[in-house]
Amino acid sequence: MESIFSRVMMETPPSLYIKALSLVTLVAIGVLGLLEVAGKHLGYSKFYNFSSQNRAKMSSRAGMLLLYTPAFLAGLASLLLLVPHTNDLRFLLLTLALTIHFFKRVFEVLFIHKYSGAMVIDSAILISFSYFFSTANMIYCHYKLYPTLQDTAGNDGEQSSTTFIDMKYIGVVLFLIGIAGNLYHHCLLSQLRKKGDKESSSTYKIPKGGLFGLVICPHYLFEILAFVGISFISQTLYAYCFTLATIFYLMGRSCATRRWYLSKFEDFPKHVKALLPFLF
Hints:
The chain is mainly alpha-helical. The protein has one domain. It has eight helices and two strands. A two-stranded antiparallel ribbon has the order 1-2. Helix 3 packs parallel to helix 5, helix 4 runs antiparallel to helix 5 and helix 4 runs antiparallel to helix 7. The protein starts with a helix and ends in a 16-residue tail after the last helix. About 2% of the residues have low confidence.
């Protein structure tokens, strides 16, 4: 098992911070996925019971911008300030992928998604910090790794070991497929609700088109694919742990989403799975 990991993951520097952070990220986000399955939702979800909570709220659009903008700025700042000082193609691709990912999210909030509800402010701040912290640390972990690689690598900063499998180009392809598929299915979801519709179960419809005939959350499936691509670009311990944790969380979200549709629509097709066609 160790030899397999050594072939698909770059050597981790002797940093307790990176190793501890990777473990904490994996456990923390994974637990959030289990809470979603158990019905304990974060304060930005349509499943969250806002009426029973006396907590400060903000508009959904402003809240979603708060979620994604700091992470986008972290990626953009790294792209402008750190990348020019390295000669590492992998670091450029990683930083570019993270910046594009969160730029797409900000773009969707401003021009694609339709909002009418509210978001709990403290949850928005917590999630925003989580996105920012995870993005900054994914960049930091690779940047911290870069000087170590230079001592034993070629001109592009890659490990010289012949057993190492370079997956950054596969990662780029997976990332592009994932981000395009996610955007496409978000566009389909945005067409379900007319502008000005109030937030209620009556405004929701069973999504159609794309992969919605097979799974209720194809946008999550493609988001997972995008993060798998990012982890393949990085090939660092933290990137792999973050992606695995994201998979656990989105599995929980997709289960909660399918359960919600089953409870609201008597005609919901039972063959439509939560996340993986025909399987899950």
